[in-house]
């Protein structure tokens, strides 16, 4: 079972690729929602308001993947898909890559455009810090105060990550568990007397 994914930790520095007077500025951003994607695009359109094209591709999701590639007025499949190809090549997700083009007066042809957009996207990803993260499941454990020691022992023995807790007369702890270990951890709590466990949506 694959339970890891790669992403970038922060926005890349601006990169620049030039070909026959055309300038291609490349950017990579970590994103989790389409709202974030739209905000970054708006920001770049304001920053580069004199540019001719703002082409981009993005991919969201860890297991169920969504993606989009946009040529923004360039010939079909000459910009968005070459950018998306680099997202696939670097095997990253939850990422947006934008390449902003200033036209230099000389047409590059479809082959030239594909190369330019691909290269600018590649340069942006090469400048990014790529990390591997685990796909986790979130569980909520409910129990009464007297069961505290039992719960804490299971958490400690299995080195589990506590993300939230409320410890009063009726206690609640939320833990995140790596996907491939999730079923066995669930069973450990589920089969323990007086302890209730349920899965939460990530």
UniProtKB/TrEMBL annotation:
In this chain the Impact N-terminal domain maps to: 20-125
Cross-referenced InterPro entries? Impact (IPR023582), Impact_N (IPR001498), Impact_N_sf (IPR036956), Ribosomal_Su5_D2-typ_SF (IPR020568)
Gene Ontology CC annotation, any one: cytoplasm
Q: Which GO terms are recorded in the biological process aspect for this UniProt protein?
A: regulation of translational initiation
Q: Which residues cross the membrane?
A: none
Q: Name one Pfam family in it.
A: Impact_N
Q: Which PANTHER family match?
A: IMPACT FAMILY MEMBER YIGZ, IMPACT-RELATED
Family named by the database record? Belongs to the IMPACT family.
Q: What is this protein called?
A: Uncharacterized protein, YigZ family
């Amino acid at each position: 079972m694959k339970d890891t994914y790669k992403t970038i930790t922060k926005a890349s520095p601006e990169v620049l690729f030039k070909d026959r007077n055309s300038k291609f500025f490349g950017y990579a951003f970590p994103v989790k929602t389409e709202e974030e994607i739209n905000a970054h695009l708006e920001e770049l359109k304001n920053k580069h308001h004199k540019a001719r094209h703002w082409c981009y591709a993005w991919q969201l999701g860890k297991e169920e993947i969504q993606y989009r590639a946009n040529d923004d007025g360039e010939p079909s499949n000459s910009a968005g898909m070459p950018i998306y190809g680099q997202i696939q090549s670097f095997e990253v997700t939850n990422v947006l890559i934008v390449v902003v083009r200033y036209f230099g007066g000389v047409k590059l042809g479809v082959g030239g455009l594909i190369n330019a957009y691909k290269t600018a996207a590649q340069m942006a990803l090469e400048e990014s810090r790529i990390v591997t993260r685990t796909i986790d499941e979130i569980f909520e454990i409910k129990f009464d105060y007297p069961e505290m020691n039992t719960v804490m022992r299971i958490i400690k023995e299995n080195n589990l990550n506590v993300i939230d807790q409320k410890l009063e007369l009726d206690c609640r702890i939320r833990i995140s568990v790596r996907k491939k270990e999730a079923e066995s951890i669930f069973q450990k709590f589920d089969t323990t007397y007086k302890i209730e466990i349920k899965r939460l949506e990530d």
